[in-house]
Amino acid sequence: MDMKQSWWRRIAIIALSAGLLAGSLPVGTGLIGKADAAAGTHNYAEALQKAIYFYETQRSGKLPADNRVEWRGDSGLRDGSDVGVDLTGGWYDAGDHVKFGLPMAYSATMLAWSVVEYRDGYENAGQLEEIKDNIKWATDYFMKAHTKPNELWGQVGAGNTDHAWWGPAEVMQMNRPSFKIDASCPGSDLAGETAAALAAASIVFADDEPEYSAKLLRHAKELYSFADTYRGKYSDCITDAQSFYNSWSGYYDELAWGGAWLYLATNDSAYLSKAIAATDQWASGGSSNWPYTWTQGWDNKNYGAQILLARITSSLNMPEAARFIQSTERNLDYWSVGTNGHRVKYTPGGLAWLDQWGSLRYAANASFIAFVYSDWVSDPVKKARYQDFAVSQMDYILGDNPRQSSYVVGYGQNAPQHPHHRTAHGSWANSESVPTSHRHILYGAMVGGPNASDQYTDDIGDYVSNEVATDYNAGFTGALAKMNLLFGQGHQPLANFPAPEVKGDEIFVEAAIKASGSNFTEIRAMLNNRSAWPARMGDQLSFKYFLDLSEVYAAGRTVSDVNVTASYAEGATISQPVVVDASQHIYAITADFSGTKIYPGGEGHYRKEIQFRISGPQGAWNPNNDHSFQNLGTGNVAKSAYLPVYDAGIRVYGQEPGIALVTAPSVPANVQAVAGSTQVALTWTAVPGATSYSVKRAPVTGGPYISVATGINGLTHTDTGLTNGTTYYYVVTAVNSAGESGNSVQVSATPQAATVVPGTLALTGTAGNAQTNLSWTSSAGTASYKVQRALAGGAYTDVATDLTTLTYTDATAVNGTTYSYRIVAVNAAGQTLSNVVTLTPSAPPATTGTLEFQYRTTGSGVSSNAVTPQFNVKNTGTQAVDLSTVKLRYYFTKDGSADLSFWCDYAQVGAANIEGRFVNVNPAKGTADTYLEISFKPGAGSLAPGAETGVIQARFSKTNWSNFDQSNDYSYDATKTAFTAWNQVTGYQGGTQVWGIEP
Q: Which residue ranges does the record assign to the Fibronectin type-III domain (predicted)?
């Protein structure tokens, strides 16, 4: 049974048994139509896969055997030991290592809600078990932290102490105090949110794991009772949270939110009554004063609670339904079309921008609840409005923005590479700047996002724009599940995800000759622990210095004449030489750091030093034959593979004598890339010592690169399945048992279809006043197009050549003259002719048409990277007008050669029913070289006499997002800020001009 249907069906059954439900239940997915804003370039299954994976990177505690994050290990294993409670597990909050209970519980509730709503979206992407595993990781922790009916441990770790250290979670050394709420110092918000998470999760697991679901529900009921009985703000008791997650909104939102979820999980009307009663405390003066200018988030749950209650109370035919519906729509209108003349700020690129700190998480959260409500509301205009809004915001986050960049780490084009995240960065030096690049890819993490001007800097130190957090990803993940339902047909998650990372050296010795003489050698050595796959404590480390005493024995002396002393040691002991191979006189000296903590935790922690002197007989001492003396220099220490390192006696780095030293191969040279049709062939020259090669590819120059082939034994590779016309960037690396070389010099190639004559094309056209308008389908393999014209019975002549667009306006046509047109598609191999279209231009009728076209500007300014005209069409006649026969044109100067993109942000007749195209005015006419032609799909319906379409919010930009200068645009008028009949916008009905004056 479909879980989503089953839990709503349970509500319906209860309502029917009480005689409360009249008619059918007004819930369900409703009409789903692809919004114009939806992009076809995103793989929503992959994006969803990675967004879920992010939660696995945040895990604390003992990791499971199926852990997919190779750079994460066990951590926080003593959490709760300060109070004698096992508080291991749960999620680290963000790029830090505090376990804040309120945002963690909120994130779990949102993820569970998304499965309740969009289970099929996860299942279609092959990610249902993954999202359930991640929800369970959190809910297991909540039940562990709920140690008594009225006791809940709500935080582990102190915020300021934790944030003062920049290192990986696995080697934390600071004290991690535990904080709780109980009857003597309660937290209704924290307990209520945790109850909501467990109740929502109980619905997720009800069908597949009924015993686990029942356990979740038992804890949820106890926690809600605790929250309701002992009231107070949790941050008044867990005061450490005040600087990070203070409960600004109080606790009535969580009491309503938790009550609603418990009602959905139990069908117990007592919880519904408590939830509704809590909403009475949201604001004085009734529901008309409820806030609507924010959105769902870790602090305020009003916005999610009112949607749940709108659906529940409507299904029960309760009078309270109206206020929940009205409040929800006030909020969603504020985010989309505006409420009472107020609307959330929008960036020029179309992001609904609420606040600088994590701007994208608010847009993602608003998108998720807009999706949920649009699935339920029956009004088709509202359904389209809220869905279109959510789609536009999600695609902005994934890359449809002025920067043409993804804001999700490891996904899409130009994705962030420097998120504010300690463990992913992998610093060993307690420094955001060491190393300069992250050692790990934090796949799926949505960063905070751009400022109000669409500007963004990928900077690890910018925790406002580049923060990542579990609550940031929560609404985003749920909205991705819905996007996958809408647009993910045929999309697949990545196979073998995640790809193995290329590991660098982690534990090694750096050494140099400190001093030397005729009978001694003094070595300075530093044992490093820069581990990161995963980071780990080194408290049983040692290294060996191998020496060859052949010259000592040749002089009649023995090992007893050799002495080793340490002049300086940071927690190490030095041994005397111990025989390794008596026949060859090979001995080893061990520097043993056992019991000394060496870990990637900052200066003084990640490396420890020892200085030792080896003294031998006068005249019988020569270190040059010592295995470990090889390549040692004087001055600064340098990494040496000839001083092998051991962890608990097991060699983890370096070479012992008698083993041929294998070093990582050098970089492949002479890499070449040759493009074919849908493929690129790569070749390179052999690298000495390489046992195989890897080929890596990137969609943009400079990477990041993803492996497309590994274990290549030859010197060639052909990358197939590529898109013709797209440029790909490649590097090649050489591999052996010692590691992988650096990247080769980057090469690039652009696959092209095999050269044949252009493909077929179809021409259509319409006649206007002293002009004809032509458009044609794209012809495969075409380099350019020609427009040819002929009079009746005459020869064809060129009227336009070297066109790369698919439209043309012939402004030299004479009214009353019949012309035949054809298009010639041209490439190097030849040409292909289109069909012939015959057109006769004519003057418009002398009488005024029955349509009035109104225009207003949004006041965005003369210079902007987005032009945002708005229109209204009014039927002034006595007959209904089929809108599918109506078109309007807005004339402007293109100000450059970049391609143009059109969006309909909102239309009262439905944004999905609006289409826009751009047509060149050739030759240009005064202040117009291009026009935007807007038309209506059949779904827009007809316009009755006296009726109006209502606002049509258009927006267009250049693909390079450069600015327009609207001051010289024919149809632009900065003074028209209210709808006004405007004759410099032209209108057409059935191909005949009925309004305005063409330029």
A: 664-754, 757-845
- Looking at residue 843, what is its pLDDT? 75
Q: Which whole number is the average pLDDT over 47-70?
A: 97
The tokens of 762 are what?
Answer: 């179809």
Give 313-356 as a DSSP string.
HHHTT-TTHHHHHHHHHHHHHHHHT-BTTB--EE-TTS-EE--S
Per-residue pLDDT averaged across 232-244, rounded? Answer: 97
Is 352 in contact with 344 (CB distance < 8 Å)? yes
Q: How many helices and strands in the chain, by DSSP H and E?
A: 17, 46
Amino acid 844: pLDDT = 61
Q: What is the pLDDT of residue 285?
A: 83
Residues 595/572, Cβ–Cβ less than 8 Å: no
Q: Are 950 and 872 in contact (CB under 8 A)?
A: yes
pLDDT digits (tens, 9 = 90+) for 947-996: 999 999 999 998 888 888 998 899 999 889 899 999 999 999 988 999 99
- Report the share of the chain in percent with pLDDT over 90: 79
For the range 209-214, what are the long-range contacts, defined as Cβ-Cβ under 8 Å and sequence gap of 24 or more? 212/136
- State percent of the chain over pLDDT 70: 94
Angle in degrees, CA 800, 805, 807, rounded to 5: 70
Assess whether pLDDT exceeds 80 at residue 307: yes
Residue 700 CA to residue 711 CA, distance in Å, equals: 24
Which one from 420, 421, 438, 627 is the annotated catalytic residue?
Answer: 420
> What is residue 413's three-state secondary structure?
coil
Task: Report pTM.
Answer: 0.71
**3-state class (DSSP) for residue 820:** strand
Peptide bond into 498 cis (omega under 30): yes
For the CA atoms of 97, 98, 103, 109, the dihedral, rounded to the nearest 10 degrees, stands at 70
Longest CA–CA span in the chain (Å) reads 123
- Which among 212, 222, 143 is positioned nearest to 183, based on CA atoms? 222
- Residue 664, pLDDT score: 82
Q: Which of 123, 355, 458, 948 is catalytic?
A: 458
Q: Which of 467, 551, 592, 810 is catalytic?
A: 467
234-248, 601-615, 821-835: which range is least confident on average? 821-835
Distance, CA of 524 to CA of 637 (rounded, Å): 7
Output the six-digit token pair for 303: 């916005």
Residue-wise pLDDT for 556-565, tens only, equals 999 999 999 9
Q: Which two tokens stand for residue 780?
A: 């495969």
Buried b (16+ CB within 10 A) or exposed e, 360-373: bbbbbbbbbbbbbb
The reply to whether 438 belongs to the active site is no
Structure letter (DSSP) for residue 58:
T
Is 605 catalytic? The answer is no
Instruction: Please say if the pLDDT value at position 175 is more than 80.
Output: yes
Banded model confidence at residue 609, pLDDT cuts 50, 70, 90: very high
Q: Which helix (H) or strand (E) holds 958?
A: strand 952-958
The mean pLDDT of 571-597, rounded to a whole number, is 96
CA distance 469 to 420: 10
Q: Which phi and psi angles does 90 have, rounded to 5°?
A: 75, -170
**How buried is residue 759: exposed, middle or buried, by Cβ count under 10 Å (0-12/13-18/19+)?**
middle
Q: Please, which residues have CB within 8 angstroms of residue 920's CB and are 6 or more apart in sequence?
A: 805, 807, 808, 809, 929, 930
Phi, psi of 283 (to 5 degrees): -165, 150
**458 catalytic per annotation:** yes
Task: Evaluate whether 641 touches 629 at the Cβ level (below 8 Å).
Answer: no
Residue type, 448: G
Yes or no: say if 281 and 136 are a contact pair by the CB < 8 Å rule: no
Which tokens belong to 897?
């050669």
Alpha-carbon span 10 to 16, nearest angstrom: 10
Q: Hey, which residues does 772 pair with through a beta bridge?
A: 767, 810
Handedness of CA 855, 856, 858, 862 (dihedral sign): positive
Positive or negative: CA dihedral 180, 145, 111, 396: positive
